[in-house]
Amino acid sequence: MEEIRINEAVVNFKRPNQIINMGGPWVGDLYLGGPKLANNILIDNLVYNKNLNKLFFVQYIEISKWQRNNFFTINYFDVRLNRILQYEKKFERIFLKEISNEYKCGYYDAFHDENEKHLNTLDLNNIKTSSPALPNEE
Predict the structure, then answer these.
(1) How far apart are CA 84 and CA 15, in angstroms?
(2) What is the pTM assigned to this prediction?
(3) Which of 11, 23, 123, 133 fits a 20 to 30 Å CA distance from 52?
(4) Planar angle of CA 95, 21, 40, nearest 5 degrees
(5) Backbone angles phi, psi at 42, to 5 degrees
């Protein structure tokens, strides 16, 4: 993963864990410098929009041990407000490609960016957001 720096703080992951036992995807705890931002974040799929000053990422929401009940969400960390928001749309699988200054999201309906036939667009302006629970510090 290419190193991302925001205001001199390095974005990194700890406690990586494979969530589907066939080569991925992998999630981990997301950190910006020292503090943990969020749990169960898709590793190697961060999009930092410098103009918006927001770090977009995908979170795995595990609500049961059965894979079919779990889902992914697009979240972002607003650097100016020091706050995370979560879009309420749920995905079975997703890989972010880009987020434009107009909040247009290019994403793959997959866990990778290897096949353009899975590329979709989404207007994030039309999706509600909420504040997710804060991660437990460990």
Answers:
(1) 20
(2) 0.89
(3) 133
(4) 50
(5) -60, 120
